[in-house]
Amino acid sequence: MRKASDTWSLAGKDYSSRLIVGTGKYKDFEETAMAVEASGAEIVTVAVRRVNIADPKQPMLVDYLDPKKITYLPNTAGCFDGASAVRTLRLAREAGGWDLVKLEVLGDQKTLYPNMVETFTAAEELIKDGFKVMVYCSDDPIAAKKLEDMGCVAIMPLGAPIGSGLGIQNPVQIRLIIEEIKVPVLVDAGVGTASDAAVAMELGCDGVLMNTAIAEAGDPIAMARAMRLSTEAGRLSYLAGRMAKKRYADPSSPLAGLI
Amino acid sequence: MITVSVNGETKSIEEAMSLEGFLTVLELNPKKVAVERNLEIVPKSTFANVTLENGDALEIVHFIGGG
């Protein structure tokens, strides 16, 4: 039996929860906070946007999720070129004071697939500037290795297009990336339901990142809990080591002593 | 009076106003925002020392929910 504590280390800090959740698409901040709580996540992704100067008294995310208690991971969602991603994260660092960031440079609106050329350029500039970069990337093991060699602190390939909920469509590529990469590997995007998170974790991912699967569930709070449990179950299953697959049946009850 | 651009909107303000003073006018908590002035980040610790000039372009951002 393995010991109960099974932490993972990201950029020099240990975390217990292997589930990172986004904070977008919720009905309101109360629901966001309840879902994050139910998910058990210690890290949440956040976006950086203009303040509405016409209505400065609008509630802010920081009033509902305390950045002192939960790690804010600023992202660059919506950036389609490296330069705006870098600009966004520099502002995020000034707003919050954190250098752990999620880089995501998108290629087009339809697929939200990563633009890897721009991702490489931006990652290089951010790392040079002292950022700790978790990088959303394609499921190409060679590209993933290059990003690790550059100094990214986590490699985060997609399992399916962002917000699609199609599940892990590329287990072979994800497994190849996990085999090659020494820094944490997280599936970022594609999870639709709890079993998808378990699949990602059973492949050997260090964690999984999701937003829509929880936020757009019928009951987001219940789904957040389901994701927490399935991420843990998938991790335990990976550590336990699954049985070998066989071509034919193998009885579970002994044949000896049969009457 | 001078004019500055804030998040794409033009605003008229008094001359020699500090960035910190302007955030107060806008009713924004300086702790919860980051400011870019003419494409350069303004460190929070210097908000009080930065005097806004005619034609300045400011971007004021904060964290919102996102995936």
Describe this structure in words.
- Chain A has helices at 29-39, 82-96, 116-128, 141-150, 171-180, 194-202, 212-215, 220-240; strands at residues 8-10, 13-15, 19-22, 43-50, 71-74, 100-103, 132-137, 154-157, 186-188, 207-210.
- With 259 residues, chain A is α/β, with parallel strands linked by helices.
- In chain A, the strands form 3 sheets. Chain A has a 5-stranded parallel beta sheet with strand order 5-4-3-10-9. A 3-stranded parallel beta sheet of chain A has the order 6-7-8.
- The model of chain B has no long low-confidence stretch (mean pLDDT 92).
- Chain B is globular, with a radius of gyration of 12 Å.
- Chain B has 67 residues and is mainly β.
- Chain B has one helix at residues 19-25; strands spanning 2-6, 9-13, 34-37, 40-42, 57-65.
- Classes of the chains: A alpha/beta (259), B mainly beta (67).
- Chains A and B meet through strand 4 and helix 2 of A and strand 3 and strand 5 of B.
Question: Outline of this structure?
Answer:
Chain A is 36% helix and 17% strand.
- Rg over alpha carbons of chain B: 12 Å
| Widest β-sheet, arrangement of strands of chain B | 2-1-5-3-4
Measure the end-to-end span of chain A: 36 Å
**Share of β-strand residues of chain A:** 15-25%
Main sheet characteristics of chain A: 5 strands, parallel
Mean pLDDT of chain B: 92
How large is the count of helical segments of chain B?
A: 1
Percent of residues in β-strands of chain B: 35-45%
Instruction: Using a beta-carbon cutoff below 8 angstroms, give the protein chain pair with the largest interface and the number of residues from each chain.
Output: A-B, 36 and 26 residues
Average of per-residue pLDDT values of chain A: 95
Question: How would a textbook summarize the main sheet of chain B?
Answer: 5 strands, mixed
What overall form of chain B do the CA principal axes indicate? globular
Query: Structural class, from helix and strand content of chain A?
Result: alpha/beta
**Portion in helices of chain B:** 10-25%
Secondary structure class of chain B reads mainly beta
Question: Can you count the beta strands of chain B?
Answer: 5
- Molecular shape of chain A: globular
* Quaternary state of the chains: heterodimer
| Structure summary, number of beta strands of chain A | 10
End-to-end separation of chain B: 41 Å
Order of helices and strands of chain B: EEHEEE
